[in-house]
Structure formats: structure tokens, C-alpha cells
Amino acid sequence: MNPLGISHYTATSSLGRGLASHRRALHAERSGLRQQAFETSTLAGWIGEVDGLDTPLASDYAEWDCRNNRLADLALQQDGFIDAVAAVAARYGTERIGVFIGTSTSGVQQTELAYRERDPARDRLPDWFNLRTTQSTFSAADFVRIRLGLRGVAVAISTACSSSAKVFASAHRALRAGLCDAAVVGGVDSLCLTTLYGFNALQLVSADICRPADARRQGLSLGEAAGFALLLPDDGTGELLLEGYGESSDAYHMSTPDPDGRGAMAAMRDALARGGIEPAEIDYINLHGTGTPANDLAEDKAVVALLGERVACSSTKGWSGHTLGAAGILEAAMSLLCLQDGLKPRSLNTRTKDAALRGNVLLESQTAALRHVLSNSFGFGGNNCSLLLGRRA
Amino acid sequence: MSGSTASAANKSTSLDEPTSLDVYVDAIGLAAPGLNDWQSARAVLRGEAPYVGAELPPYQPQRLPPNERRRATPAVRQAFRAAEDAIAQSSFDPADLASVFASSDADMNVLHRICTALAEPGRVVSPTDFHNSVHNAAAGYWSIAVGARRNSTSIGAHDTTVAAGLLEAAALLLDEDALLLVMYDVPQPKPLLDQHPITTPVSIALVLTRTRSSRSCAQLRLAFDDRATSSTETFDDEALEALRKSNPAARALPLLRALAQQSDASLCIDAVAGRRLRIDVTRCT
């Protein structure tokens, strides 16, 4: 396929606001996970919480105010992203810039808060609650569109933890289809009791900090994040490229990956095929790597079957935790930083690699020039996406 | 998966050459009050039979394995109803089809139960409720039911979900030869009904193809229509118009009327940012 240029990107997570803080954390091997409880949660464990989300949105956007849109707003303000979009909108027109936003739970925390104030006699929620602008799956996408002053195609993609990887694929198709001339892609998912208690009910949360690929890994740590990228037709000069994508379904189980990793392998294989890249040309894989026993084992089988045992790989969820619907964009941003810095990051928090895993999970970070990187994101419902990201030689 | 690899690799689409957003309708599925399936609904949509908004008869998804059937929520069942109706009329094996599942709110009954539980001291969230709470639950159940391993995308765009679903599907046909588009929403539980009055269960499914075949019944050409004179297509029949407004998925009913009439038509539906999506329907047979 023809690549797209990634002219600007940004990310905000528990590692900090904007790319510089993520770059520092990656090089310093500093995790954003902290042993603390979120909001009124009484669950023990480690979470990746973003600081500074207690301030309401500016009055122009008051009806959109909720933790998820505050996080989106904070992330949009980093790395000159708003100005970069404005410049592209001035060139093409606000109707010609598409918005593709991944989210899993959108502003569900607002609904949780509303239910605490539910009037049982009249079965009514408080007047301040607005489902369309907060809870609705579309809220995050529509807020980003309005915040950026755009009037082009806009859609929320919600396929659980692959959501904000798939936005790259949808944007690529929309540009090819002539639906837009440039695209803002991104994702935002914020901490909430629904996911904290929900993943606990499924017994997928680690009491310990998450340790992807570790012999004694117990599960995931939840985090929150938002990130965005500006995609343009490749002009032949930009440094960073979307070179391929692959999407597939497991057709296996709603919340457990296919143990043979067939869906994961199909997604990676399609990403390579679209990019015209041989497995041997992949320099690093940013794994989905949630740290659950089942995910890491199935993904390892897929990686080894398609790319062999030598390609360097790691999950960066030891840094950020699992940011669910934002994992795709956050880990794409981490992968782009690695491409720019020539860094293959280690699997943070991993002490002893699980002997059952045959892939080359890095226990020490390495420096080397990188050209092509795969970033994997897999979600509930057996929904898989793999992105092929590249740096121009 | 080899099929999608080949089609992606062999395609030489250039970003500089806008592809026409033409798609072809291979099969149609429908389930709404008084419109139990596509075959029986056609006469009503053509205006040859009166519309009576009776409740949908009970239904069990035919293709779900017993475990998943037990766990499937009303929204999943509603999505299946139209999907199975469309597949029954299509020559495609559903395992071979990519899919787009478009819903504004998916299953708010699940969210209602979770948020109710979280507001109580024990905070006991059902694991089944939690995995059913994802927006792509219907798509996940579908892929398990029919063994579909291709690309599946689940989207939402509030009351403009039908327009967004059609555009997502049309663009996905650059990568895929054929796909299943399912548009669905179900009634909200009481406290959320005040916020988004979805009062009927509606699902509409289309099997769409990239190229015309002998089985195609119509071509759909999609384009934004920003003329001040364009207006959203409605029904003169009050009950049908009430149905159209009662559920985000029912915004596709004017398109289904045009397909039922089997004549060329041009209509607009509501799209994002107050814009309209024009659909030019051209009969194929």
C-alpha cells in the first residue's frame, strides 16, 4: 500500500504530558504505574493514573466535561498538535480533515457518578448528567472534532483494546476513498470503576505490578492515556510513516485469546503484506503484552510462527499499564519514539522470562537504528490489529 | 486470511486518485416492530400494505453456540436478527465476510446493571456483564457464531451512526470484496431513556460488495451533500416516521424503502456536524 506520512503525534499517560516525558521515561526505564487506589475504589493494585484531570473543561466545552474528555483535551494541548491540525485545516478546509478516535469506555465514569445520585423514587439521574456528550461512544470523537474546529468525517471506533490501533486503518481507507485529505487519528480511555471492578471480576488484574512475559506474571495493571497523530499523504520527505496495517478476528471467545494466536498472526501477516515488508526486515515488535498468562503465551506463539525467535520484542505496558482503548495510539506513539531514537526498549518489570515463551523478549534495552516496527493491539471479542510503522531511510 | 492479504497487496490504489464511493447491495436484513424481516417488510415499505407497529415476535439467534446464546444480550440478539435475515438471502458464506457493526449505544442494559452495582456498597460486577459491555460485543459473538476471522470494525456516531456505518463500510470495501454491515440499537433502561430516547429495537443489515455481480440488487453511491436545499428523507406515514425517529438504526429505513421500491432514487440522511450524506440508489436488475 502507499504509506501515509505521520507529520505530528503526541501522547499523554501516567508517564506525563507529551512526547518529551514519554521519551525520558523510556530511556530512564521509569514506570508510570503506582500502587494506589483510583477514586473511591477499594481494590488493591497498581494503576497508571494521569495527574491533573480534576480541572473542568473550559466553559466553551462545558457540556462535554468528563474525565475522558478532560484527558483528550489535555493530550491535544501537547506537542503543538492543535496548531499543526489548524495549519492542515487551513490548507485543505475543515470539511476535508477526518477524525477517527478509538475508545473503549468513553466517558463511563460520568455515568457511574450519576448512578450514585440516582433518585430511586422517580428512577431519574441527576440533571447535570448528559449521556450524549460524555457516556456515548461517539462523545470522545465528536469532542475532539469540535475542539479542533473540524467538520469532516468523524467516527468513534470501539473494538475494546484494539480501538485506537484500528483508527490508522480506517483513516488510510478514508483517504484512499477520497472521504478526506488528511486525518486526525487517536484514542482516549480513562480510568473508571467499570473497568477496575470488571477486570477484577474476570480475575485478570495483577495484585503485583504488571510483569509482561515474566515467568510469574499474574495479570495486567490498568492505566489511562490519550494520544493523537496527524496523517497526511506521504510527500516523500517526512520521517515517520504508517507503512501497513492488518486486522483480523479470532472467532474464538469473547474475553480469552485463541491460545494458538491465529488471529494475532493473521493481523501481523496482513500488516507485513500491505507494507511489502519481509519478516526479517522487522527490527522490533511492540507487543500487546498485557501481562496476563493467556495473552502473552498466545501472542508469543503468533510472533514466533510468523517472524521466528530472533526479532526483538517487548511490551511497554510495564511503563504505562494497559490503557485499553488508548493502548493502540499510546503504543504507536511509543513505537514512533523508538524509531526516532533508535531504541529497542526492554520489557520493564520482567524479572525472569517465562521459559514457555520462545520469542526474543528483551530483558535489557538495546540501541540500534530502526526502520520498521510492528505494534500489536488485541481486544475483547477477539478483535486484532497490527500496525507497521516505519522511519524513512 | 490469505484472501485479504492478496487483495491488499495486489491493489494499486493511489492516494491521489479518489475512489468513487460506489457499493453494491447483495442482500438485506431487517428487524423492527411491525417489520419482522426483509421479505415481509417490502410490501409495507413500498406502501402496498399498511404499517402496523406490532412487537417483534420472540427470536433465538440460530447460529450462536449454546454457551454464547445463553450469554448474549438483547442488543446482540437484535443485531443477529437482521444479520441472519440478510445472510439467509445472500450467496456468501458469512465466514468469508468482513464486517462493520454500527450502533450508537450498543447495550445500555448492561451498563445500567454495572453502574447500579457500582453504586451499591458491595460493588459486585458480573464478569459476563463486563465482557458484554464492550461496544463490539455483537461483532465478537457474530465472529464466533459464523467463524468469521476477517476484519471486523465496530463504530458509533450517536444519531448519525447509519451515515458513519455506511461510510466505514464503503471505505472498507477498498480492502475487502464483500462485507456485512449491521446497524442496530435497542431500547434504553428507564433512567437512561430520558437521556437518549431509543424506544424500539431495530436492526438493519446489508451485505455489500465492491463490484457489481449478477446478484446485486442496487448500486449505492455515497457523497456528502452540503447544499442548503438538501433535506433529510422522512416518511409521510406518521407511524413509520415515528419508527424512523425512535432508534438511530432506523435512520436507514428511507434507504430500505428505496431498495424495496426497486427504482432509482436519491435521498439524504443525517451525518456528522449537521451535514447530510446523499445516497443515490440505482437499480441493478
Question: Any chance you could write out the topology, listing elements then pairs?
Answer:
The complex is a heterodimer of chains A (393) and B (285).
Chain A: E1 4-13, E2 16-17, H1 18-28, E3 34-35, E4 46-48, H2 67-76, H3 81-92, E5 97-102, H4 108-116, H5 131-135, H6 139-147, E6 154-157, H7 163-176, E7 182-189, H8 193-201, E8 222-223, E9 225-233, E10 240-249, H9 262-275, E11 284-286, H10 293-307, E12 312-314, H11 317-320, H12 327-341, E13 343-344, E14 360-361, E15 366-367, E16 372-379, E17 383-391
Parallel strand pairs in A: 4-8, 5-6, 5-7, 11-12, 11-16, 12-14
Antiparallel strand pairs in A: 1-2, 1-9, 1-10, 3-4, 7-9, 10-17, 13-15, 16-17
Helix pairs in contact in A: 2-6, 7-12, 9-10
Chain B: H1 2-10, E1 22-31, H2 38-45, H3 66-71, H4 74-89, E2 98-102, H5 108-118, H6 127-132, H7 137-146, E3 152-156, H8 161-172, E4 178-185, H9 190-193, E5 202-209, E6 218-224, H10 238-245, H11 253-261, E7 265-270, E8 276-283
